[in-house]
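Following up on my earlier message about adenosine monophosphate. Here are the inputs again, as you asked, copied directly from the submission form:
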Amino acid sequence: MTTSEPDCLFCKIVAGEVPAEIVREGGSTVAFRDINPQAPTHVLVIPRDHYPDAGAAGRAGVGIMDEIAREAHEVAEAEGIAASGYRLVFNTGPGAGQTVFHVHGHVLGGRGLEWPPG
Ligand code: AMP
Ligand code: ZN
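Thanks, got it. Here's what our run produced:
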């Protein structure tokens, strides 16, 4: 069963109603370039189904967080950043900077990624 929210930007990208530079499609996920990249590689990996955040997706218990992590690594390998290292980020909640409430993993790499972030 596919779930979507009519007013959700990322559901619209999944449906092809909003354009995006898609770099990889899995059976249950889509990966596309962030419109406002924070690193040379900045790709978002999202489930086709709508979950508002990582907590909700994890609690659903259907393996979607596993799938996002797996797809993120495939993206990192394709982008040539898997060996050097990349960051997989899930901003969760408005206080953490989440602005789109359809869970997405940010795959960031291609430059030095200091920790903690500056
Ligand atoms: P977050 O702040 O963690 O919710 O991340 C949302 C991300 O979505 C931001 O990095 C935005 O730049 C990105 N974004 C917003 N609209 C689009 C879009 N139409 N296509 C691609 N990325 C987008
Ligand atoms: Zn959605």
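One observation from looking it over: The first strand starts at residue 22 and ends at 25. Hope that helps, and feel free to reply on this thread.
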